[in-house]
Design brief:
Elements lengths: L2 E2 H10 L3 E4 L2 E8 L2 E9 L4 E2 L1 H10 L4 H9 L4 H10 L6
Antiparallel strand pairs: 1-5, 2-3, 3-4
Length: 92
C-alpha cells in the first residue's frame, strides 16, 4: 500500500495522537493518560516508501485490512481503541 505523508498525518489526527516535531514527526497514542504506542514519519510531502508504511502499520498493531480501513476512513478512533483492546494492547 502506497501512502502520502498527508494520509499518515490525517491518521495521527483521527486517532488523537500527540505529535512532536523533531527531525521527524513523532506521534504518540495515549489512552487514559498512558502512552501505549508511538510511530513516526519524516517531514515534507510526497510518498512514503512501502517498507516505512509497513513499519507504521505494525507499530499501530493493525493487520493489513484494519490499516486500510484506518487510512480510508471506515475505522475511527473508537474502532481503533476496540482493535487494540481485542489484541490486549490496552485495557478495556
Amino acid at each position: 500500500m502506497q501512502l502520502k505523508k498527508r494520509d499518515i498525518r490525517s491518521v495521527f489526527s483521527k486517532l488523537k495522537m500527540r505529535v512532536e516535531a523533531t527531525h521527524h514527526k513523532i506521534a504518540y497514542f495515549e489512552y487514559n493518560g498512558i502512552e501505549y504506542l508511538k510511530t513516526r514519519v519524516s517531514h515534507g510531502e510526497g510518498e512514503i516508501p512501502k517498507p516505512v508504511v509497513e513499519r507504521i502499520r505494525k507499530q499501530l498493531f493493525l493487520n493489513h485490512a484494519q490499516f486500510q480501513d484506518l487510512v480510508k476512513c471506515p475505522m475511527g478512533y473508537d474502532e481503533f481503541v476496540a482493535a487494540l483492546q481485542e489484541r490486549g494492547i490496552i485495557p478495556e
